[in-house]
Design a protein that fits this description.
This protein starts with a helix and ends in an 8-residue tail after the last helix. It has helices spanning about 5-10, 25-40, 60-65, 85-90, 90-95, 120-125, 140-150, 160-170, 170-185, 195-215, 220-235, 240-260, 265-270, 280-310, 315-330, and strands at about 15-20, 50-55, 75-80, 105-110, 130, 155, 190. The protein is α/β, with parallel strands linked by helices.
């Protein structure tokens, strides 16, 4: 079962075992909250759930807790966080007891991988195996609009949703945080417009991004890395930085495609969405990047996102530094 489908319509009756599989922690948190509310009532909170680490949890202890009648709630919820090693170690016991799970409790296994062809997976009801994976990138703006309406009772225009994803990136948890702030920012207004997103989310990030790319275009990679360090020191989330980087670089890439069709650089940049005050510096950035890099930007940004999501053993700071250094080297300029 898909996590978004469950969140849209939580089950009326909660079973004794659920498996949350996938790599989207935001969806796992939301599904856990939805199951807890249905299982324990609207007053339930995180304190009403026992949490065990998957590499330390003992099956006998977990099973005993599930079998114990709760004092303040009708049933117990036990969550095994990072349950992959727990499932590996106790697979045989889980298979043996899966049809004997205590009715007094609900066991939630939070795993990254869940092979559908294993005996254990086949024994778990399809409605209890919840796939927690982010929607495809092209669907994320629509998810933002749906989420804003369902959670915050605000209408998010398609243009505002696209701008928000451009600025923040596709991370669902970060997008939810920004949607909460936007819903508070607009107050009694029912609709969130692009101007609201630009004012609340975009201006600071766009300004910082502009300074970084201006430094690269001026042949000052040290200054660009110093600005990046400052963002980290201020607690800026790496994926938020990438969202702002992506918006600017995609505009430059789009402008270059217009230049290849015969348009002048200033006109191409304006058509790509560069504001009037930024045309001169954007032209310098575009000329610095050069033809080959402008054509590779889409692939490099995809690689950057994957690396920051666990695809690289390097720290987020080193991944971003390496990306900026890749953009800093002098190569052939773009010409009109």
């Amino acid at each position: 079962m898909d996590a978004l489908a469950l969140l849209a319509k939580p089950p009326a009756k909660i079973g004794s075992l659920y498996v949350l599989h996938g790599d989207e922690p935001f969806l796992k948190r939301q599904v856990t909250r939805a199951l807890r509310a249905q299982l324990l009532g609207p007053d339930a909170d995180e304190q009403s759930t026992s949490v065990y680490s998957g590499d330390k949890a003992d099956f006998a202890q977990v099973y005993d807790e599930l079998s114990t009648v709760a004092f303040f709630f009708p049933r117990r919820m036990v969550l095994i966080d990072g349950a992959d090693p727990f499932v590996t170690k106790y697979r045989a016991l889980l298979e043996k007891r899966i049809n004997e799970m205590p009715a007094t409790g609900c066991l939630v296994l939070d795993v990254k991988t869940w092979a559908a062809n294993t005996r254990l997976a086949k024994m778990v009801d399809a409605s209890a195996a919840i796939a927690c994976k982010a929607p495809a990138s092209y669907r994320v703006p629509q998810w933002c609009a749906d989420w804003a309406k369902a959670q915050y009772q605000k209408q998010l225009s398609s243009a505002a949703a696209s701008l928000l994803v451009d600025l923040v990136g596709p991370d669902m948890g970060l997008l939810d945080q920004e949607l909460l702030k936007l819903s508070i920012y607009v107050g009694d207004r029912a609709k969130i417009d692009p101007k609201d997103v630009d004012t609340l989310v975009g201006q600071n990030r766009a300004e910082n991004t502009w300074k970084i790319f201006d430094a690269l275009a001026a042949g000052q990679p040290g200054d660009a890395l110093a600005l990046l360090d400052r963002l980290f020191e201020q607690g800026e989330e790496p994926l938020r930085m990438v969202g702002a980087f992506s918006m600017q670089l995609r505009r430059l890439g789009l402008a270059y495609r217009q230049v290849k069709l015969g348009n002048a650089i200033p006109a191409a940049l304006e058509q790509a969405g560069i504001p009037p005050f930024g045309l001169k510096s954007a032209e310098a950035q575009m000329k610095h990047l050069g033809r080959r890099r402008l054509l590779k930007l889409h692939d490099w940004l995809l690689e950057l996102n994957l690396d920051l999501r666990g695809g690289s053993p390097l720290s987020a700071r080193m991944v971003l530094e390496r990306f900026l250094i890749r953009l800093s080297r002098r190569i052939e300029p773009v010409k009109n």
